[in-house]
């Protein structure tokens, strides 16, 4: 019983070809319909009631910065933050300081769910890499973002 304050649609692919295929489908529809942002959600995403409102406020803050290509929420489980994170020696993930908000001054990675991505940026790069059918797609997304000069805006939203 939740009404979203924007147009949205649901498309089901019975072939279940993976996340990258689904993201590329949404990207093509969004580009055709002139949308600016693509919000990635998993089937089990549970958002706080003020999530969309806070996201809208965040977008008004970053409107002037064309380099912002992702808006990332902070994620926690049982009081322990796990995303976004930095990758240290050996590929180990360590969560960043959760008090940081705004444009992140260094390279971070986030889980795909609840990532808000700028469509034009990923469209210009040819979309999402379908080699990463499911696993590691989120790491590929953020690696691609960083290698191509994108910036991440960290919100106060906690999921």
Span between termini: 20 Å
The portion of residues assigned to helices is 25-40%
- Poorly predicted regions are none
Mean pLDDT: 88
Assign an overall shape.
globular
| Total count of strands | 8
Largest sheet: 6 strands, mixed
Fold blueprint:
Elements: H1 19-32, E1 37-39, H2 51-62, E2 68-77, E3 80-83, E4 85-88, E5 92-95, E6 102-103, E7 116-118, H3 119-124, H4 137-147, E8 151-158
Parallel strand pairs: 2-8
Antiparallel strand pairs: 1-7, 2-3, 2-7, 4-5, 6-8
What would your notes on this structure say?
The protein has four helices and eight strands, in the order αβαββββββααβ. It is an alpha+beta fold and 159 residues long. Strands 1, 2, 3, 6, 7 and 8 form a six-stranded mixed sheet that branches. It has a two-stranded antiparallel ribbon with strand order 4-5. Strand 4 and strand 5 (92-95) form a beta hairpin. The chain is globular and about 40 Å long.
Key traits:
159 residues; six-stranded mixed β-sheet; 4 helices; globular; alpha+beta
Structure at a glance:
This protein is α+β, with helices and mostly antiparallel strands. Helix content is 27%, strand content 24%. A hairpin with a 3-residue loop joins strand 4 and strand 5.
